THAP domain-containing protein 6-like (Scomber scombrus), 175 residues
Amino acid sequence: MPDSCAAYGCANRRCLELRNKGITFHKFPKTGERRRKWELALRRDGFAASERTVLCSDHFRSEDFDSTGQTVRLKDGVVPTIFNFPAHLQRSVATRSSTTSRRAEDNLPVDLMSDVGATGERRQATDHLYALPACPKAIKAKLEAASVRVRKLQREKSNALRREKRAKNNIRWLE
């Protein structure tokens, strides 16, 4: 019996076609807080995962996977985050509506309010300096993490090219 993804509205079933597309299936953690987080992430009332319950890779970010070996695995502590919930299961985004929060926004310096238009509506900021951490150490840590990721991807690319070359040589020898 093929396994189906337990996510709301997901029709992915474990089969050769999806495997060839690169979709993988992952069992729920066996016990503990992580399993509870996975169950809560699905937003299904009264849902309790069994030993065979799985989620497909469509519900995880690409950086959640460890694909250094032959088997694609999830990194430790990862929780599924990508779902296509209907409107009644969407979480509402909290907006500031209290007098105090509005007053605080009114007292901001002009340069911090550059993304607010003349009518008070928010515009897209043209510069993204607000996204940079204030601490240079944090920027350096992000840069180092990105460098590690680049080196890892270069190594994976090199390995893939070597595998491809070996496969072509094997095919040539078989002909």
Observations:
- The beta strands are 25-27, 54-56, 65-66, 73-74.
- The helical segments are 16-20, 33-42, 99-106, 136-174.
